[in-house]
Write a structure and sequence with these properties.
By secondary structure, the chain is an all-alpha fold. It folds into 2 domains: 158 residues, no CATH class; 32 residues. 53% of the residues lie in helices and 0% in strands. It has 10 helices and no strands. Helix 2 runs antiparallel to helix 3, helix 3 runs antiparallel to helix 5 and helix 6 packs antiparallel against helix 7. It starts with a helix and ends in a 20-residue tail after the last helix.
């Protein structure tokens, strides 16, 4: 598929970077003869859903973004609704070969146009004011918000065994100075001298690992 200039600009502005590194190894080790290939393909789609570019690239019908279509496709793959995964091979090959972002997204768009439905238009909520004038809510913003909420739930499902949420006493222990030891309070005061209220005064202009 040939990318449009708008798509190329978004892809260049929001590169995938190392977002696919982990799933790339899973794809290399997966076997098409068993469930590991399906699991790895679903993991790839989830990684793409979470990318910034997916939320910035508009859906072809102008309703929502490509993250919504990728998420729908991911659920179909994970749930077995798509039995034959042969059509994913070009995308998987580009990811495994560490192709450039344009090649990867071109393969994604071809796959989406073939397998994924267009993003369903969300019916906007139109509450009435006390004057009876309806307030129109942006359907695009609703779509982005709804998609991101689902993505966050899916991502937490993937990392739930190594991530904790709602840990009791966490804020009090680590962010309440009243419970800190003298050494911790002294450290805070020292750190505050390096901040002018707006930014870190000694932070290097080039935030490389060593100077930071």
């Amino acid at each position: 598929m040939t990318l449009s200039e708008q798509q190329k600009e978004v892809i260049a502005e929001y590169p995938l970077g190392d977002a696919l590194d982990r799933v790339r190894n899973k794809l290399r080790d997966s076997n098409e003869a068993d469930d590991t290939y399906r699991e790895s393909t679903a993991a790839l789609l989830l990684a793409l859903v979470g990318s910034s570019a997916a939320f910035k690239l508009p859906s072809p019908d102008g309703n929502g973004n490509e993250a919504g279509r990728l998420l729908a496709l991911r659920l179909d793959v994970q749930g077995g609704k798509i039995a034959n995964l042969d059509q994913f091979r070009p995308l998987v090959r580009h990811v495994v070969d560490n192709s450039d972002d344009n090649a990867i997204w071109a393969a994604i768009f071809s796959l989406l146009d073939t397998l994924a439905p267009r993003t369903p238009r969300l019916r906007p909520t139109v509450p009435s004011t006390f004057l009876g004038t309806p307030i129109k809510t942006s359907s695009n913003r609703l779509a982005d918000s709804a998609t991101r909420e689902i993505v966050e739930q899916e991502l937490f499902h993937e990392i739930k065994n190594c991530t904790f949420r709602g840990v009791g006493g966490f804020l009090d222990k680590f962010f309440d100075p009243e419970s800190w030891r003298n050494e911790q309070k002294a450290m805070l005061e020292k750190i505050k001298t390096a901040h002018n209220g707006t930014k870190w005064t000694d932070f290097p202009a080039t935030p490389d690992e060593k100077p930071v």
